[in-house]
Amino acid sequence: MNEFLFVFLVLLVPILIVVGIIFLSFWLPKKLGFPKAGKIIGTLACCFFVYAVIAMIFEDELFSKNDAIELLEEQKIHLNDDFKLEENSSSWAIGDYHHSFTLSISENDKKQIVKEIKSTNDYKDSSTQVTELLYVVDIKENELRFIEIDE
Q1: Within 13 A of 98's CA, how many CA atoms are on the CB side?
Q2: Of 2, 26, 37, 128, which is most buried with the most CB atoms under 10 A?
Q3: 3-class DSSP state for residue 123?
Q4: Are 75 and 135 a contacting pair, CB within 8 Å?
Q5: pTM for this model (two decimals)
Q6: What is residue 144's DSSP assignment?
């Protein structure tokens, strides 16, 4: 019963907050004598929350090459040749987010990335134990797999 109550509250409270914000954004200006402004503000608030929900639901489908480039640049990885987005997935839970994608890259880009990674001061070969990784770059054949984990 407690699990049901927890899930119910986790879903119900955000929905009530969103509905309350939308209602207040319409009702408050109307009570202050600005009914048109209330309709406009209420409609904009509603559109914002609908957009946010759609963006969360279709996050994987909306992921593009430009998003991949931005995430790679955060890791100071630059691709010179064209690449193909092979796979993309993300999952989230309360306090946890996991996003991974796989790219098909050119042989030249692969060699360049391997060279850059091996030339860093922090590079350790695969025999070294790594207990906690926030970013993982996995290079196999012609694929670059980038995994981002936020904790």
Answers
A1: 6
A2: 26
A3: coil
A4: yes
A5: 0.54
A6: E
